Amino acid sequence: KTQLEKGDNLTEGYVSELWDFTRISVTQNHFQELKEIWCQWDDEIKQLFYCHYGDLPYLLDIKVDEHLFRALAQFWNPAYSCFTFKKVDLVPTIEEYTALLRCPRIQTDKVYSRAPNVPTFLKKLMNITGMSKQWITARTKQNGGCRCISWRNLRDLILAHPDMKKRADVFALSIYDLVVFPKALGCVDEAVSDLSDRLDKRVTLVPAILAETFRSLNTCRRADEGRFIECTQLLIAWFHSHFWKVEKVSYRVFSEDYSSLKELVATSRRMIFQKKNR
C-alpha cells in the first residue's frame, strides 16, 4: 500500500501478490572432496586462505534444508525483488552479505564489473593457477556456449601444487564456482574465472552474488519452476541470521574476530548433537 501511494516502477493497476506454489530444485555440487581437502590442510595455509578469502570454507559445512529453502522461496516477490511476509518486506543487503563472508582484504567500495578488455579464459586460468598454457589447454573443454575446466583437474592441482598461495587461490576458485555460482555442475566456467581473477584487485563480489540470487529467484517464481543456481548456503545463512533463536546476545558478536557463518555452523552442530542424545 505504501509503495502504491508513494509510487514505484510498476505499471498502473498492477497488484503485487505471491503466486501459487513454485517447484524449485536446489540440486548442488558435491562438496565432500572440498571438505576433505580443507580438513587435511594445516593451520598455516588455512590462515593464509582466511586472510585472502574470508569465511568461504564455512559455506561447505552449512547443510541446506531443501524443505526450508522451498518454503522460503514461496515468499519471494518478483515484482519488488524481496521476500514478503504479510506486511513485512525482507531482502539481503550488500552490508549483510559482506558481514557474512567477512573477507578482510576486500574493499567494499570497489565493486566488480567486467573489464572492457577481458583476458582470454586460458590467460585467466594461467594467472590463477600459475600453470602453463599447454597445461590449461589440455584440460579445458567446451560446455554449451562457454569454455570450462573440470573440478577433477582443479582438485588434483590443489593437492599437488608446490606453491601454497596458488593452492589457496585454486581452492577459492573452486568454492566460488561449485558453491557460490554453481551454474555448471562439476566444472568451473569462464564467467566465474573472470570473477576470481579480479579478486587480487580487492574488488567485492557481493553485488554480483546478490544480483544473480535475485535473478535466479525471479526466474523460478515467474516460471513456477526451475533450478536455483546461486549460493543456497549463503541465502540460508542470511535467513537464519534474522530468525535464529538465541537466549542472549554474545559479546563475541561485537568482536572483530566474530564470524556469523562459523557461529551458524557451530550452532547447527550443537542442535544435531542434542537431538541425537535426547
From TrEMBL:
Native source organism of the sequence = Gossypium laxum
The cross-references to InterPro entries, in alphabetical order and at most eight, read:
DUF7745 (IPR056647)
| Domain (DUF7745) ranges | 42-247
**What is the top-level taxon of the source organism?**
Eukaryota
What name appears for this protein in its UniProt entry? DUF7745 domain-containing protein
